[in-house]
Amino acid sequence: MKGDLKENSMDKAYMIGEIAQMQSSSDLNFIADKSSKLIEELSSWNVEEVTLEDRTGNSVTLTRKSLISQLSQIRDSMTLERSKYYLKRLEKGITKIKTGAINDININLWQDYDDIITDSLWIFNRRDNSGNHNAEYWGNFIPQIPNQFIRRYTKKDEWVLDPFMGSGTTLMECRRLGRNGVGIELSPHVADISRMNIEGELQSRGTRSDIYVGDSGNEDIISEIRKKSTDHVQLIIMHPPYWDIIKFSENSNDLSCAGSVENFLDMFGNIVDKTYDILDKGRYLVLVIGDKYSRGIWIPLGFYAMNEVMKRGYELKSIVVKNFNSTKGKRVQEDLWRYRALVGGFYVFKHEYIFLFRKSGRTVKNKKQSI
After folding, report:
1. Which of 78, 113, 147, 242 shows its CA 20 to 30 Å from the CA of 3?
2. Please, what are the domains in the chain?
3. CA–CA separation, 73 and 225 (whole Å)
4. Which string of b and e fits 228-267 if b means at least 16 CB within 10 Å?
């Protein structure tokens, strides 16, 4: 079955031949027996993914779990008609790769992507701390967020822009997933931290991780990116400060230093403006942001920021609510915050928003609007 192929590989021609024999048979017992033998072989492999590969190097990769599941459906079919249906579906999945215009997901093997979330409520029990990912930098977001969107809305070797790079979470995920990443960071010190984090990740297929120090709302930074890195990107991921919840610097261009919510939104909207042209038409922008309290009043910062993006030629595609159990600042004060909530008549934040937008190409003349 393996021949001289690598450890996690199965001869693609062998599998196709086994499927063809089962498809030509009218004996359910024969089909069940063939399926059982393939399942037994795969079950003995200590791998998560199986590559079906031919001698010319053409291959398709499935999770071992998915392949066993599909073979089990064939084995357990109660009718010949149903077994032939599952056989045809499996054959199609391993012989015909059908991907969309904006990602590498093989729709013919859609069952194989059960780790890609399609629901609007995201609950993560823990952050991914593998590799150089860590939670030492205040305000960074969990790696699972850029991972999900990079896989869903880009192809390998395409470009992802992060205008609020921070400690480099997005660019580390780009590096892992075979995408080119370009990040902008206002603080030279934080950019140095990000550079060390990113360089510690294994580079995938010669992709690039380009870092620029400066203000994302400055046209010169975007011009420099276009000259030195790429003229167009295929995804923008924004994780700005949640206004003044965490003050990251004393720089007047830092959104966390904005004097008012109106000032924050003007500064944020300017960055959306400056990065607009570099994103390809029809591609996506992701905004990760939360709300805040000010003097006991809930400030719906996330929806204000959402509105700023929609004023600028973007269509809202989805709103995801993502939970978090504790922040770095509240980790040892959960009882205190519960007490404060009971006394003050408010609720403790346990969520933030992820807004997904598509660039429509429409120009909006009147971008300013009172809130």
Report:
1. 113
2. 9-104 (no CATH), 121-359 (3.40.50.150)
3. 51
4. ebbeebbbbbbbbbbbbbeebeeeebbbbbbeebeebbeb
Q: What is each CA distance from 315 to 30, 82, 298, 359, 362, in whole angstroms?
A: 53, 42, 26, 6, 9
Using CA atoms, how far apart are residues 210 and 290, in angstroms rounded to an integer? 27
Q: How confident is the model at residue 8 (pLDDT cuts 50, 70, 90)?
A: low
DSSP string, 139-189: T---THHHHHHHHHH--TT-EEEESS-TT-HHHHHHHHHT-EEEEEES-HH
Residue with tokens 């599998």, as numbered in its chain: 15
Instruction: Report how far residue 58's alpha carbon sits from residue 52's, in angstroms, rounded to the nearest whole number.
Output: 8
Q: What is the pLDDT of residues 297-310, one digit of tens each?
A: 899 999 999 999 99
DSSP string, 247-289: ---S-TT-GGG-SSHHHHHHHHHHHHHHHHTTEEEEEEEEEEE
268 close to 308: Cβ distance less than 8 angstroms: yes
Beta bridge partners of 106: 99
For residue 92, how many C-alpha atoms fall within 13 Å in the half-sphere facing its CB? 13
DSSP code string of 309-330 = HHTTTEEEEEEEEEE-S--TTT
Quote the pLDDT of residue 279: 97
Report the helix count and the strand count for the chain, using DSSP H and E: 11, 13
Residue among 120, 190, 183 at smallest CA distance from 148: 120
| pTM exceeds cut of 0.85 | no
Query: What is the phi-psi region of residue 337: left when phi exceeds 0, alpha when psi lies from -120 to 50, beta otherwise?
Result: alpha
Residues 132/197, Cβ–Cβ less than 8 Å: yes
pLDDT digits (tens, 9 = 90+) for 344-365: 888 888 899 999 999 986 554 4
Q: What is the DSSP letter of 107?
A: G
pLDDT digits 0-9 by tens, 126-135: 766 665 565 5
